[in-house]
Amino acid sequence: MTARTQRTRLLAAGAVAASVSLILTGCGSSKSSTGGGASATASIKPVTADPALVAQVPADIKSAGKIVVASDASYAPNEFQDASGKIIGMDVDLANAIGQKLGLQVEVQNSQFTAIIPGIQANKFQLGMSSFTDNKEREATVDMVTYFLAGTSAAVKKGNPDKIDPNDLCGKKIAVQTGTTQADSIKDTITPNCTKAGKPGVPNDGDKFDLQTDVTTALVSGRDQVMLADSPVIDYAIKQTNGQLEQLGTVEGKAPYGVVLVKGSALTKPVQGAIQSLMDDGTYKQILEKWGVQAGAIDKSVINGATS
Predict the structure, then answer these.
(1) Quick check: 18 pLDDT over 80?
(2) CA 88 to chain centre
(3) Per the UniProt record, which residue ranges are transmembrane (predicted)?
(4) Cis peptide before 77 (omega within 30 of 0)
């Protein structure tokens, strides 16, 4: 995934917006199912510190005893807030497990997506875990440690009332989260290709919102005709909107997610080692199954593994 601007409030959506926002931020009983067989209360086996990895942790971080992890908590089921405002999700559980492997406490801070990489570069955060797609452009300025595989999916209202063709989005109103790879795709690929074909581009290069919950609301309310997001997020939104949405076409452009760290950080290698250890001991699989995203599992974590 990637970033955003000041979001537009969907004032006209009224009660629809409120209900969708509640659904997608996990409101209701804290013991309720999160959809797709996932459960926010499913237990993960205890993770113990790995002495060899602990020994690799930089002295200043070891002395502080914790790492601060930034996450944009609007991208369920990867990172979002429960009814009490606590940040939960696949990335959060994985961040906590990484910290445990390294003998460190983890503090997850909610941050606007576009502020995460600058915050890491300014040493405000040690890690960014917010469904960041690992690509060459990002690797030029930060380190990325791979841990998941996702692609881009599209969703429309149930029954596809506008008869949207997934292979022809020219002229269609598309909702995306600001700064995401999906937003970049509209600007850099979809609209230019439409122009070359003599067709209208995507209006405004997509309606962009700071929060994924607002993206979903825009589609459910009818403000937009299509939404584009990472495949696990589309799957989750379809389940959580109780049949109001359906997937359009197939998953495209699969690429790894990466944990973001300062370029050349001494913490990069131990984080990669911790993720690989979690993969090897089964904890990683448990976390993904808890959130119903096991389809994105990989078996090897690498540092800066982008191919494009």
Answers:
(1) no
(2) 12
(3) none
(4) yes
Question: pLDDT tens digits for 242-261?
Answer: 889 999 999 998 899 999 99
Buried/exposed code over 30-39 (b: 16+ C-beta within 10 A; e: otherwise): eeebbbbebb
Question: pLDDT confidence of 41, banded at 50, 70, 90?
Answer: low
**DSSP string for 15-42:** HHHHHHHHHHTT-S-TTSEEETTEETT-
Confidence bin at 39 (pLDDT 50/70/90):
low
In the three-class reduction of DSSP (H, G, I as helix; E, B as strand; rest coil), residue 237 is classed as helix
Burial of residue 285, with CB atoms counted within 10 A of its CB: 0-12 exposed, 13-18 middle, 19 or more buried: middle
For tokens 């976390």, the residue is 287
Q: Which class for 142: exposed (0-12), middle (13-18), buried (19 or more C-beta within 10 A)?
A: buried
What span, in angstroms and rounded, lies between the C-alpha atoms of 35 and 77? 9
User: What tokens does 72 get?
Assistant: 């944009």
Question: Reading across the β-sheet that carries 74-75, which strands appear in turn?
Answer: 74-75, 79-81, 87-88
Complete domains list, the chain, with CATH = 50-150+258-295 (3.40.190.10), 151-253 (3.40.190.10)
CA distance 296 to 275: 15
Do the Cβ atoms of 164 and 33 come closer than 8 Å? no
